[in-house]
Amino acid sequence: SEAVYCVTPPPLRVDVGKVGETFVNVSWTRESQQTLTSRMKSRNLDSDRRLDQQLRELEQERAGMVQGKALAAAGSSMEVEEADDVEKRLAAIDRSIASVQEKAKQSKKLMAQHCAELEQVTSYGRGDDARYEMVVYVGSFGRGAEDSSQSHVLLRKRLGRNEDRYRLENLTPQTSYFVVVRALHVSAEQQVSAELCQSVGDVDDDTQAPWGEWSEKTTFVTLKPITIKAHGVGSSSFSVEWDTGIESSSSSKKTAISKFQIKCLSVGSQKPAVPDIILSDSALKGHVVPDLEPSTQYSVSVRVCYEGDKWGVWSAPVQFVTLPQLVAKLDTTAERHMDFLVWRDSFPSVSDPQTLVWHPDATTHQLAINGVPCDDTFEIEEGTSTALTLDTLSLDTEYVISIRDEVDGTWQDFKPALVSETLPHVPQRPQLVERKGTQIAIAWEHRRLLEERQYLYMVEIALLAEPRKGRKSEVGTFQTLGFTTDTTFRLDLPYPIHACVFRVRAAKTNLTVDGSPMFVAGFVPGKPAPPVGPVAVDNPHLYRWSGLSPVVHFKTPSVPDHPTGIHVRNLTHNAAQVRWQRPANHAEHTKLVYRVYLNNSYVDRFTCVAETSDCHCQLDDLVPNTHYRVAVTAESTMGRSVNNNTLHFSTRGVPTAPDAIIVQRRPMASTLPPRPVLKPPAAFVERAAKERANQQATAEVGDVLIDDAGSTIYSAVGRRSPEGAPQENPRGATAPTVTVSSTRRRQLPPLPADARK
């Protein structure tokens, strides 16, 4: 008979895909089937490759000969016989190329014809898989479903057409399983009832059908639950390691871990201590949980996500206690360095024996100064403290010292441990800015870099011992004069100024020995500062003081010399302009003030009529035909001039006509003796007698002076000052006490302090 061709289908092959802790993906397929036609096409393809390779070699040879012939022709070095040989070889190569091309063409034609004839002869129906049956066993027993009747069947399932994969859920972690599959293969001529093909789901044992052979068993082991352990504990972090079991699993190469999830709970409240951490790197073996609180009990669990959306089970939790926080305390502070101690606080008491209490022998840390990490690291041994020193710091600068831990080779975030400041700048050399008798004022420059701080100054004084022969004066023990928040200090000096030396040091009221601020004068940070001035300090030793300013010795300061060159210009019957020159030592005195005193022939008192910083003064409303005496004094913060000269001048008579006014423009600079005193009017004499009886003066501006003729000059108070009593001037300042003398003297008296000397 004629031959009948048939092909049996290849066996089913089961493939286990992604394996997790509680799930697995199972798929199956039939191996590819090779026919006579496919084998013939494969052999013909090898023949075509050989012909193509031969054709490329011939074409390369021909191209090389053509190029050589062209080069020889260009150089005219080829003989006629050689040219004929080249032409012959080229013709032979062309014939070979044509022959190979013809063979390839014939081969393809014959192959197409043979394949068509073979397909016509071997055409037959192959059929299809109508249903599948899958059985999953716990353990690895027997070969196929027939030999596993005594094993535990976990699942037996029948699936419909084209259902060639299935996902097994709710498996037991770290358990061995195997799975087999068979198919109901139906050919084109075979008829199967619709009920048999459409019934899927759980297996009905009463149903009889021509099932194929069981596939080879495929074994797999579910992954063990992820296990975790502590690898390092810090004061604000926890290092956890885990083992997914993939390395020890036979299906690990097919398992796809997409990410991890870490859950950290506070044991006391059972609330998340930090948001759940999702790690997308599937190759991780551990992680450091940050942002924890020191000396706090936590619980950490980890689970794995497979295939992007399938989460495994949570690991058994690990309970632990974070290390106590690091404590830093300032020890000493100098101008450009500070010493401080760092130690770890005491461990909290834990009653649960399952809770991990980490006791490392030493921990590694790193400092950061104002956010800039230091290059060096340091260690703190358990139960001890570490002394650290910071050098080359800037004066009067705030420094924030932060410390971070190294946990499992990972540096954590910096945590502020100490906020401190360096000492203020040293005050500059004090200067004597004012002296009135025993009252003096010293001032100094001081550089302040922190505007919101309150600065305190301590002024100290020491007496100079009497110098011995050939030796300098020795400085005695310094004593505190007082404290102030201003850079100027006023005091009533109980000693001669030339016998004293002074120095100043500065402090900040927020920088103390015990670290607690000690503000003065009602100062409150963040609010408007109170007025500066002298303050009372109970215990100055609690402040951290700066270095000492240069010691300064003030010799007895000189008062201003008297103005010179007093003269009158533009003299008329009722006005005159007084001019003078500055004192010879005016450069030593700042803010010189000149006072102009005047009296006439009718009175014996000088009156201060003007106060100016210029070297001239206009006198108006004078009495015509009257003799006047004018004096000018110079005054500064160091006192008032002495030995002041007096100038005499007389006004003109009243002109009979406006055009007859005479102006004396030539300077009158001589201190001429006074003219005969004119007889005053009776009314003036009577009024002067009443004033003298009531001890009242008509002066409106001025201080008490004695002129060169012995006349008393009254101040604006209106009466003589009693001996030793101070007197207020118009500007509100306390005037020095002057003893009024009736003795005639040609010069103004010195200051009281000078008089004592």
What features would you describe in this structure?
There is one protein chain. The chain has about 750 residues and is of the alpha+beta class. The protein is built from five helices and 45 strands.
In short:
This protein is an alpha+beta fold.
**How many distinct beta strands?**
45
Relative strand content: 25-35%
Shape by Cα distribution? elongated
Secondary-structure class: alpha+beta
Number of helices: 5
Span of the ends, CA to CA? 160 Å
- The average pLDDT is 78
List the helices and strands and how they pair.
Blueprint: E1 12-19, E2 24-30, H1 36-75, H2 80-121, E3 128-138, E4 152-159, E5 165-168, E6 176-186, H3 194-198, E7 201-202, E8 218-221, E9 227-233, E10 238-243, E11 257-266, E12 277-279, E13 286-289, E14 297-306, E15 310-311, E16 318-321, E17 326-333, E18 338-344, E19 356-357, E20 362-369, E21 372-381, E22 385-390, E23 398-407, E24 410-411, E25 415-421, E26 431-436, E27 439-443, E28 455-463, E29 479-484, E30 488-492, E31 500-508, E32 534-535, E33 552-553, E34 564-569, E35 576-581, E36 593-600, E37 607-612, E38 616-619, E39 627-636, E40 639-640, E41 646-650, H4 682-694, E42 705-706, E43 712-713, E44 727-728, E45 734-735, H5 752-756
Parallel strand pairs: 16-19
Antiparallel strand pairs: 1-2, 2-5, 3-4, 3-6, 4-7, 6-8, 9-10, 10-13, 11-12, 11-14, 14-15, 14-16, 17-18, 18-22, 20-21, 20-23, 23-24, 23-25, 26-27, 27-30, 28-29, 28-31, 29-32, 31-33, 34-35, 35-38, 36-37, 36-39, 39-40, 39-41, 42-43, 44-45
Helix pairs in contact: 1-2
